Amino acid sequence: MTELTSNIAKLNGYLERFRKNGIQNLIGGESRAALSGKTFETVSPTDKSVICQVSHGGAADIDAAAQAAKDAFPAWRDMPALQRKKILIRIAEGIEARAEEIAFCECWDTGQALRFMSKAALRGAENFRYFADQVTAARDGKNLQSPTLMNVTTRVPIGPVGVITPWNTPFMLSTWKIAPALASGCTVVHKPAELSPLTARILAEIAHEAGLPAGVWNLVNGFGEEAGKRLTEHPAIKAIAFVGESRTGSLITKQGADTLKRMHLELGGKNPVVVFDDADLDRALDAVIFMIYSINGERCTSSSRLLVQDSIAEEFQAKLVERVNNIRVGHPLDPKTEVGPLVAQEHFDKVTSYFEIAKQDGATIAAGGEVVGDEGYFVRPTLFTNANNKMRIAQEEIFGPVLTAITFETEEEALEMANDTQYGLTGYVWTNDLSRALRFTNHLEAGMIWVNSENVRHLPTPFGGVKASGIGRDGGDWSFDFYMEQKHIGFALGHHNIPRLGA
Ligand code: NAD
């Protein structure tokens, strides 16, 4: 039996209950069908087969979930920090115990390759452990003495919050948002992406098995324009943590305006990787390839624009073409697979439309540019060359295993092109000239920049983008700033002079 055959057999075991019972919402600690009784299908991008039926939550289900989160809030907020910490650690342990099931279901639901998803499942556990460690200090504040007052600050959880997540690495991203929310003392209503409901359900189950009180974490499946919209408008929900496309971020900001929602938006990117001729070119090549072709290129931090200095461009691109043509496209559960199928028909149509757009723009398809078979949504890893920064393939987020290479002559030109985009999530700079690295990163418009490195996440560092890539930061204490309110209390030190009116 090959490893793939044995993995498929295991997957079938994990899917059995979903096939039999479908996926229900989880509200107030109870599994519930949608109030309308409606369901929708989730489909595997590998063979277009229906995985299972999913409860189609709408406004009424969100109302029930928001009420449950509101009711559960005071007790969760007031639970001693150490008790909350223990629950979060038990959630991390639950994730670790079911990491294979999570990874396999994620691969089947989203088309992601197992080599990346097994790590993503464990990263989810790390997120819970990391924020569990911060729980006891999260409410600490400052003592700011004035001549007349002892001024004390503290942080308090903002209240029930909504978490809206996308379909790319949905499990890891859900933990990244929900773990700090719970650590802060907030209760949660989670609306996962309609294209990837499987692991969101497993995660909520793990949380309940870990002893999380009913109503602290509520899960409502449904579509953005119904369930998602109601969540952003609900008066009991005090903040929305959103990960998704820039135009959706703009929509939900409008939807949340009437109830003055606090918003944290992690949005799209068209991130540059800039390779200067003095760089370690072998390492740069590895990083360029990894940061666009791993995770099917369906990754907000992917380096989808390669800016390469013209003195080395020909040689660098030739090596790139050779490696890109060697990338193994295949079944997501085959451990050898490097690129799996794209998540769904609509996204497949979007990504493949850029093959024609590239030609119309006048670029060259140096590798890929074609689909693979017709059983699932597979495309060949693609490289566009002879491009310029004004082309659509250089400006629009394609969100697939598709790289646009552009050459530059001078540092100034590279900087101008790197910044000439609506987005500003990440940037990657490859140079061995320290002064240049300092100058360049100083002027590069991005929330996160790596020099001589691929994206390596360190959980205490701030994560987020500028321009159309988002508003707000996650990570370390920045997460607590979002899910908590600062509170100031002034205690009079004695009998200071109080102005007397009408005396
Ligand atoms: P999307 O914006 O289409 O959907 C994201 C979520 O929003 C889904 O759950 C969807 O149902 C919901 N939604 C849609 N319309 C809504 C509405 N009107 N009101 C409330 N909710 C609504 O994004 P996607 O296609 O699922 O994900 C891919 C996008 O996410 C890419 O642009 C990618 O760059 C971005 N992303 C960003 C980050 C980051 O950290 N910056 C991380 C991952 C993904």
The neighbouring-strand order within the major sheet is 14-17-18-13-12-19-20
Ligands present? nicotinamide-adenine-dinucleotide
In percent, how much strand structure appears in the residues? 15-25%
What's the name of the CATH homologous superfamily of the largest domain? Aldehyde Dehydrogenase, Chain A, domain 1
Structural class: alpha/beta
Largest sheet: 7 strands, mixed
Number of helices: 16
Low-confidence stretches: none
What CATH calls the topology of the largest domain is: Aldehyde Dehydrogenase, Chain A, domain 1
β-strand number: 22
The CATH class of the largest domain turns out to be Alpha Beta
Structural domain tally: 2
Helical content (DSSP H or I, runs of 4+): 40-55%
> How does the overall form come out from the CA principal axes?
globular
Radius of gyration: 24 Å
Average pLDDT number:
98
- Taking the alpha carbons of the first and last residues, their distance comes to 93 Å
The second-level CATH architecture of the largest domain is 3-Layer(aba) Sandwich
